[in-house]
Every structure is written in structure tokens, then in C-alpha cells.
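haha ok so turns out i had the wrong file open the whole time. this is the CORRECT one, sorry everyone. sequence first:
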Amino acid sequence: MNHLDASPVSPWHAGERQLQQSAGVAERMEVIGAKVIRDHLPEQHRAFYELLPYLVVGAVDAQGLPWATLLEGSPGFVHSPDPYRLRIDSLPAVGDPAAAGLKSGAAVGLLGIDLNTRRRNRMNGVVASAGADGFAVEVVHTFGNCPKYIQLRAVAPDASGRRPAEGAVQRANSLDDAARAVIRNADTFFVASYVDLEGDAAKRSVDVSHRGGNTGFVRVDGDVLTIPDFTGNSFFNTLGNLQVNPVAGLLFVDFASGDVLQVVGRAEVILGGAELATFEGAERLWRVTVEQVVRREAALALRWQFEGFSPYSLPLGPWKA
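then structure:
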């Protein structure tokens, strides 16, 4: 989505509309989009962001690669001075590839998510100012998300006030066995994507969102990740972006150790075929061929305690051999 889209009526860009049409929901989403997508932060959203000790951010580097990352701080480190702006008093750590995309004038995506209540709100906007202690983002679009597929996790009480150890930063062009194990064991990750409408970087719209399922819901074959897309809000923000600009940045968090794994690769959306039937409950698939990998040890100060599987998770295994 982007307020600079050529269409004066539709809140959706061409990639989103294409997938909405394939799902048979295009007309309904035109009506819903006009009602739920705002150009400002409602009071409810403003209050929610201020409660969070972490925020997911999507940013694009100078090479045009989208990176998802997680910023953290004491509750209140994210705050809204007015309905059209969000201030984040935190910056990516040294070695975080997302840092390069947080410059004044850059388009970014933000996801406020509370894994303990499954509440989440999305925002995309433009960095209005950036300094040594944080950055401010002007709102382009905001909207709420349903709690589907969010696994329950509470921030460990003894993590409050801790500083990250900021261990080794490892970079590679492919996944090693350790990285594959992290992905295979994940029940949660975050994904950054973007579009340059009309091929114009000045009309860039960045999105970052959550993906979840049962442990192992991401299939790993060498450097290729195949991810099921389950029934959701039918916005198709991520997959719509990938239809137009097939590159994605994924963030996997080790909630027990604070390690993070960030990967970027070429993406494709799969709407049908025999492979789809091997993923329980999936309506479509998307695939990422990993081209860059960044592993950062103890990058986060926070730790999370697993509280239970989401009632919205799939009842059976995520995929069948």
C-alpha cells in the first residue's frame, strides 16, 4: 500500500490486487481497505506502542535489499508525539544490516507486536529525522492485524534493564547447518518486503510483518525456504509486494538466547500445484532462495518464555513429506 499509488480510489497496489482477485476477495477488500487503513495513528495504537519493550522494523539498504530487525528498550522507548508521527528511541546495533536503511527520507515498515497478548499493529512511513539516539517516522498508513498464528511468549522478568552482550557477527552467502537448524526449529519469524511504485524509489513503500505456525512450518532445502501462506486478513501486503518486487528479508529470533538470524533472498509466490498439497492447511506458498545471511550472537537483551501454542495454529503438522 502507498498513498502515492497511481489509483486515486484503491488503497492497494497492483500486486496486492492481483492476489486479492485470485482469492476472490478483490471487491470486498476495496470496501474494507477504505475503512481500516488510516493515514494517522488512532489513540488506541498510540497507547499500545508506548507499552512495548520491542519493535520490529523493516528497512532497505543501499543495494535495494530489505532487512527485518528487532529493536528494544524500556516501555516508552516507542512513543507518538502526535497522531502522524512515531518516535523510536533506539537504533540497530553495530553489525545489523538494517541500520543502513534508517536514514532521513527513507521508507520503513514498523510492526508493533505483543507476543504475550497476540496484539499487533502495522505501520509504514518515512523517516522524518534520524540521530544518535533514535529516529522518528511520519505515518503513511496504519492498520491493525488479527492475532492469528502468533505463539504465546512473555518477556522474561529478569531480562528487564539488561544490555545485549553483542557477540560475534557472522556473514555468509548461504545457509550452514546451524542456520538451517534455527529455521527448522522456528515457529515464528518476521519478513520485510517493499515496492517502488511506478519503478520510482521516491514512491517506495516498505512492509514488515509476522509469520507463525507450528514448529517446523518452514521447509528448508539447502538454501531454499518454502513457506505456507494460511488464511488471513486477505490484505496480501507481503505477498503482493513479492509479486511486484521478488526479494524478501527474513528475521528469525532465538527467544531463549537473544541470537538473531537475518536472511535475504529472491522470492516467488506459488498459487497452486502439487507441492501446495504437502503443506497442511496452506492456501498458497512462497519461496525464498537465500543469497545473504547475517547471524548475530546475543544481539538482544530481552529473553522470552514460551507460554503455549496459539489457538489459531494448525491442528496438525505443518507439512507432509
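Residues 14-308 form a domain with the Pnp Oxidase; Chain A fold (CATH 2.30.110.10).
again sry for the mixup
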